[in-house]
Amino acid sequence: MDLKLDHRTEDRLTIVEVEGEIDVYTAPRLRELLIDLVNKGNFHLLVNMEKVDFLDSTGLGVLVGGLKRVRAHDGSLELVCTQERILKIFRITGLTKVFGIYASVDEAKEAHGRDK
Amino acid sequence: MATVELTFSALPAHVRTARLVATAIARRTGVAEALLDEVRLAVGEACSRAVEAHRVHCPGEPIRIEIRDDSGRFEVTVTDSAPNDDIQSSTGTANGLVAAGTSADWMFGIVPEMPGLGIAVIAGLADDVEVSPGPTGVRIRMSWPAATPNGVPAR
């Protein structure tokens, strides 16, 4: 399955919808989107990974790179993910301690609102 | 004797094909359904690492995969032809390799190249991993329990 990307902004939070497989072939497209969003002043990103079928270390690198960029602007990059097979790679690499990971977009938006 | 051998050009698009082939053979071999995602991810990581190394050092050379199921285990070996300087020889199980820190500083420090992260992920997934770097390339061998001849999982 190819990678489908979409994004929308709700109350200063830019939600990035990701669907499909994030690997060495498709990850550059996600990287380009995140860079483009940051360059356009979107510093609070929420990446919804509920429809991601596959994620490898290349994809992790893109997400960490995005986090690094938004933090340079005092921003945030958080994730929505409940799939065990995706969460496992975050746990293996210790990235559960680096990213805020939420069970739903609404839960993340609620937490983001509290932090504002 | 290798059950399946596959070579592919060092193109990112072929990594998906390689992991799908490996996963299909793993399923046929009787690897437990719960482990198939691990097989898919580990083989993908090994092939991605090889592709990246070939793109830097030898883009015209193919990457080789051998898939065996003749020892009571499902075994995948990914061999590249690129000289390496980012990994150490290692053998063992998952936690032995995933020993790096988990702070954001550590992760940010390796982001530009992320050397070794793919290997660390493989080590976290396969319960038997052997990484053999050499002057002419790296060989990553990994295996999982397969079904015994009577169809009962080996563990």
From TrEMBL, chain A:
<dbReference type="InterPro" id="IPR002645">
    <property type="entry name" value="STAS_dom"/>
</dbReference>
<comment type="function">
    <text>Positive regulator of sigma-B activity. Non-phosphorylated RsbV binds to RsbW, preventing its association with sigma-B. When phosphorylated, releases RsbW, which is then free to complex with and inactivate sigma-B.</text>
</comment>
<dbReference type="GO" id="GO:0043856">
    <property type="term" value="F:anti-sigma factor antagonist activity"/>
</dbReference>
<dbReference type="InterPro" id="IPR036513">
    <property type="entry name" value="STAS_dom_sf"/>
</dbReference>
<dbReference type="InterPro" id="IPR003658">
    <property type="entry name" value="Anti-sigma_ant"/>
</dbReference>
<keyword id="KW-0597">Phosphoprotein</keyword>
<feature type="domain" description="STAS">
    <location>
        <begin position="3"/>
        <end position="112"/>
    </location>
</feature>
<dbReference type="Pfam" id="PF01740">
    <property type="entry name" value="STAS"/>
</dbReference>
<comment type="similarity">
    <text>Belongs to the anti-sigma-factor antagonist family.</text>
</comment>
<protein>
    <recommendedName>
        <fullName>Anti-sigma factor antagonist</fullName>
    </recommendedName>
</protein>
UniProtKB/TrEMBL annotation, chain B:
<dbReference type="Pfam" id="PF13581">
    <property type="entry name" value="HATPase_c_2"/>
</dbReference>
<dbReference type="InterPro" id="IPR050267">
    <property type="entry name" value="Anti-sigma-factor_SerPK"/>
</dbReference>
<keyword id="KW-0808">Transferase</keyword>
<dbReference type="InterPro" id="IPR003594">
    <property type="entry name" value="HATPase_dom"/>
</dbReference>
<feature type="domain" description="Histidine kinase/HSP90-like ATPase">
    <location>
        <begin position="8"/>
        <end position="144"/>
    </location>
</feature>
<keyword id="KW-0723">Serine/threonine-protein kinase</keyword>
<dbReference type="InterPro" id="IPR036890">
    <property type="entry name" value="HATPase_C_sf"/>
</dbReference>
<protein>
    <submittedName>
        <fullName>Anti-sigma regulatory factor</fullName>
    </submittedName>
</protein>
<dbReference type="GO" id="GO:0004674">
    <property type="term" value="F:protein serine/threonine kinase activity"/>
</dbReference>
<keyword id="KW-0418">Kinase</keyword>
